[in-house]
Design goal:
single chain; 4 strands
């Protein structure tokens, strides 16, 4: 039989503390005179007796057994923490860790011979001993804080447990925040100490989230201090990641009900230092690229140029789905894609890999959490939006002695042949996130996808950003890990307008996320972003050579999916699902009405796909009538929402009438010719489009003779979409659901 297990003095001390033993009954090796330096604490309100000081000096001199401390605190029940004896010891552990961190550092060891002139006794700890104690205090807080805060405590319970007495909580937490701030802003603080203190702050705010104790981090404006951390050269990657995420979480504290009172959010919105904002782009680019590499390590989606080119040629002749809308007219042949621009797959080998390999359930990588902070800047700061699309960033200057979770970190060289603007890296990562967001059925990937769609929506809402993306050509590697693949870019050295990549990201979401459990709010953001993009192109008379037929097919597939889903759920269907249905109708109608397509071939493709989906379009009238019955339901709706919904229904009916007239016009023309071949149908469509062009008319003019007298709404009038824009913007601004996932990822590293 084995003998008794020897336990370290640290473990024995922790065991007694968490059982409620008084400090006086726990042995210590530190003489009282050696702890007297704690009497010089800058926080007199937290002063303690000499015996207590002696104990904690000894305790923080011991090496921290992290696993044991975490296990023992985790074993405590919530009720145990409120028990007076245990509460006294746990609060004393927290308070004294803060006091140890507040010990003024001695000069460098080489100057310690002058300690007497500094008013210190020779019996007091040396520079190195103080440094060790402070490191142990930081290590203790890194374990103590999340282990206590994961027990579902209320804000008041947290204040009491951490301070020991609710009346002392103000002094304790002000000292806590003050010490973290001191460590962050002093350039002479060791890198490890800065990182530990950033992690302490991050773990605290992530564990607290929206509870009241986080207000202490806002009473003192921490933005300049965290900004200084990010501006320091050769900063550790972990420190950059922690500081960036800390900014994002703090800026989101009570964002919906007290945004004007949040100094961090106000500072982000009012930031005008272009150099600092470019520094953010440089520092975060590496994390974004690392997150992309994490997807690519699961499945390499590098295109094989020879094989994929052959596959693209063969796919021109691949039959597509049956055109149900024309089957009633005796046309049974499936319609091919006009122009054959779609690359249905790179190669048989790649398709097989996609179908059989790759577990993306753990994606995106933890480093993607910086997107949360970036979104705060993108949403709140117009100057940052312009910088993020204009800046061509160089490799950041970082300390590569990094945490394993942040490695390998590769960044493009500043001397690369075709350096990319920073937004290209965001869109590349976005393509991977949006491709895999719902494939695992897990909420975390879906939350990241929603955040990415919010970023895209904010970008396309800014006309200055859109203008720049339309004239700036660059090459972006987009995700090709799930079938169907996006088309390969045309032969322009792989470079094309950045605005096309924005459209691609929306298209990726539409193609890969039609599931029974529909992420309705994310689809609303996606379609609204597309609609806003189409409106910008039409208003600015910009004609992009884009694969528009992919977009029409995906929107019509979504419309059919919604119709079937509402048909099954009936009156129990989600109100947002019906709003999404109206939004898709509006997007398709605007595509018909507006003049932004580059050529007649593109117009023919649009009409072709609308005509093949005639059954879905012509069934929307019944669905819209049933939707109006729910317009004023729900007592929680404000008068603004009711008025907005009523306006939306009136406008949606005008849009639907446009689609119905166009569909019926071409169905009638096809019926007149009694055609039974795909080529004949296409000749019919092309002939009518050319005739309209000669007469100076657009697609919207087809079937105008059938317009009813009551249709007085012009969907091209300025302000037609104002109501829906306001509704979407209100929901985007009020949606802070991602913060819990940012906090969860902040606690994992």
């Amino acid at each position: 039989m084995g003998g008794p297990t020897l336990r370290s003095r640290y473990a024995l001390t922790v065991e007694k503390l968490l059982k409620g033993c008084t400090i006086e009954h726990i042995p210590t090796r530190v003489r009282l005179s050696q702890s007297s330096f704690l009497l010089h604490s800058p926080y007199p309100g937290l002063s303690q007796d000499v015996i207590s000081q002696s104990f904690w000096v000894d305790f923080f001199s011991l090496d921290v057994d992290k696993e044991f401390l975490k296990a023992r605190i985790s074993a405590l029940h919530k009720d145990d923490l409120i028990e007076p004896a245990i509460k006294k010891n746990t609060s004393s552990m927290f308070v004294n860790a803060v006091l140890v961190m507040a010990i003024p550092s001695l000069p460098n060891p080489g100057t310690e011979q002058n300690t007497s002139s500094l008013g210190r006794s020779p019996t007091e700890p040396s520079h190195l001993e103080i440094e060790v104690m402070q490191r142990h205090a930081a290590e203790t807080l890194l374990i103590f804080i999340p282990s206590i805060l994961n027990k579902g405590l209320t804000g008041g319970e947290i204040l009491e447990i951490f301070s020991g007495d609710f009346g002392k909580s103000d002094a304790v937490f002000k000292a806590f925040v003050s010490e973290l701030k001191q460590a962050w802003q002093h350039a002479n603080v060791p890198d490890d100490t800065t990182y530990h203190c950033l992690q302490i702050g991050l773990r605290f705010v992530c564990s607290i989230n929206q509870l009241s104790p986080n207000a202490y981090f806002l009473t003192d404006d921490l933005y300049p201090t965290i900004k200084k951390v990010l501006e320091l050269p050769n900063q550790r990657e972990e420190s950059v990641w922690s500081a960036s995420l800390l900014l994002g979480v703090l800026s989101n504290y009570h964002k919906t009900d007290a945004a004007n009172l949040n100094p961090v959010l106000s500072r982000i919105a009012g930031e005008r230092d272009d150099g600092f904002m470019r520094q953010i782009c440089r520092l975060t680019q590496g994390f974004i690229d690392k997150a992309i590499e994490s997807y690519q390590r699961v499945l390499d989606d590098s295109p094989s140029s020879v094989t994929s080119s052959l596959a693209s040629v063969l796919n021109v002749f691949t039959p597509k789905q049956d055109a149900k809308g024309l089957s009633a007219f005796g046309i049974s042949n499936p319609f091919p894609i006009i122009g054959g621009s779609r690359d249905r797959g790179t190669s048989a080998e790649m398709s097989q890999k996609v179908q059989t390999n790759g577990d993306f359930s753990s994606q995106p990588d933890l480093t993607s959490a910086v997107l949360f902070t970036l979104y705060q800047y993108i949403q709140s700061n117009p100057s940052f939006r312009l910088i993020c699309v204009q800046s061509v960033v160089a490799a950041p200057s970082l300390n590569l002695n990094s945490h394993p979770a942040l490695l390998p970190l590769t960044v493009p060289s500043a001397k690369a042949k075709n350096p990319l603007p920073w937004v290209a890296h965001i869109l590349s990562l976005g393509s991977y996130i949006l491709t895999h967001s719902t494939s695992s059925g897990l909420p975390r990937p879906a939350a990241y996808a929603h955040l990415m769609l919010r970023i895209i929506h904010t970008l396309v809402e800014d006309p200055s950003v859109c203008k720049f993306l339309c004239v700036q050509n660059f090459s972006v590697r987009l995700c090709r890990q799930r079938v169907p693949f996006l088309p390969l870019p045309p032969k322009r050295e792989g470079r094309r307008a950045g605005f096309e990549t924005v459209l691609d990201c929306c298209l990726i979401w539409l193609q890969h996320n039609l599931h029974k459990q529909l992420q309705t709010h994310s689809f609303i953001l996606c379609v609204q972003s597309l609609l806003r993009s189409l409106r910008f192109l039409a208003e600015q008379r910009i004609r992009l050579e884009y694969t528009w037929e992919e977009l029409w097919r995906s929107l019509l597939a979504l419309l059919g999916f919604i119709f079937r889903k509402i048909g099954k759920e009936g009156m129990n269907s989600d109100t947002r699902l019906r709003e999404l249905d109206m939004l898709v109708i509006r997007a398709l109608a605007y595509a018909v009405a507006a003049d932004f397509l580059p050529g007649q071939k593109d117009v023919c493709q649009l009409i072709y796909h609308i005509t093949t989906s005639s059954q879905t379009i012509l069934s929307q009238r019944t669905l819209l009538d049933s939707t109006s019955d729910l317009s004023h339901s729900g007592s929680s709706r404000t008068s603004f929402h009711v008025r907005t919904k009523t306006t939306l229904e009136v406008h949606t009916r005008a849009c639907l009438s446009t689609l119905e007239r166009t569909t019926n016009f071409f169905l009638a023309k096809i019926a007149e010719e009694d055609t039974r071949s795909t080529s004949a149908v296409m000749r019919c469509i092309q002939r009518e489009v050319e005739k309209a062009a000669r007469d100076g008319k657009g697609v919207i003019d087809f079937g105008m003779s059938t317009r009813s007298e009551g249709e007085s709404v012009n969907i091209l009038e300025e302000g037609f979409f104002a109501g829906f824009d306001a509704r979407i913007r209100e929901e985007v601004d009020s949606d802070v659901g991602f913060v819990e996932w940012a906090c969860a990822d902040g606690l994992k590293l």
